[in-house]
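Quick note —
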Amino acid sequence: MTGKNKTARLAGLIYLGVVVTGIFSLLYVPDKLIAYDNAALTFQNISASADLFRLGIAGGLICYLFFLFLPLVLYKLLQPVDTNMAKLMVLLAVISVPMYFINVQNEFTAISLVTNPHYFPGQTAPQIQAQVLCYINQYDDGMRLIHVFSGLWLFPFGYLVFYSKMLPKFLGILLILGCFGYLVNFFGRLLLPDYAQLGIARYISLPASLGEIGTCLWLLLVGVKEKQFITNSTQHDSYFRRP
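Predicted structure written out below.
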C-alpha cells in the first residue's frame, strides 16, 4: 500500500468515527430523549435514561476529537492540489472544535439538574424541568452556530476533492452544495420562525450527508490511485501558475 493510500485510509477511518459518533450523539440520543415542546417529558426521559444521555455527551466529545484530527490528515492528502485552499479547509474545520467543547457545558448542566435536584433548593419540580429544557435548547442553538463552520469547511474540501480527481467529481460537487445547505438551514431557522415546519431542512442538508458519507466510504474502501493523483494535482497546480 502506497503512502497516499495509507493516508487516504486513515482519513476514511477517522471520518467514519466522526460519522458514527455524530449520528449517535446528534441524532439518535436527542430523538430518544428530547421533546422540545414538553419540559416534563424531557425531564422524565433523561431521568429514566441518564446513562444514555451521558453516552450522548461522551459520543459528542469523541466526535469532535476525531474532527480535530480529520482535517489535518486531509491536509496531508490534499495539500498538493492547492495549499491555500487546504489551509482554509483546516482553519474552518478546527474552529468548530473549541466552540463545541464550550457549548457541551449546557448538556453537563442539564444532566446535573436532572440527577442532583437537591443542589437547587427552593425550586419546584416544574421550575427545574423548565431549566433542563432551557439548557438543552441553548445547546441546540449553540450547535446551529457550530454547524455554520461545519458547512463552511465543506467548500474548500469539496473544491480540493473536485480538482484532485482522487475521488469522483460528483462528491466534490455534493460537498460544495452541502456548504450552502448548512448556511441556508442556519439562516432559515434564524430568520423564519416557522422554518422547521416547512419540511425542507432535511432535503437541503441531503447533499452534505451524501457527500460526506460518500467521501468517507471512498477513502476507506477504495483509497487513492497515487500516480493518477500526482499527475492530476501537478496539472492543476501548473494551470494556476500560468502567466
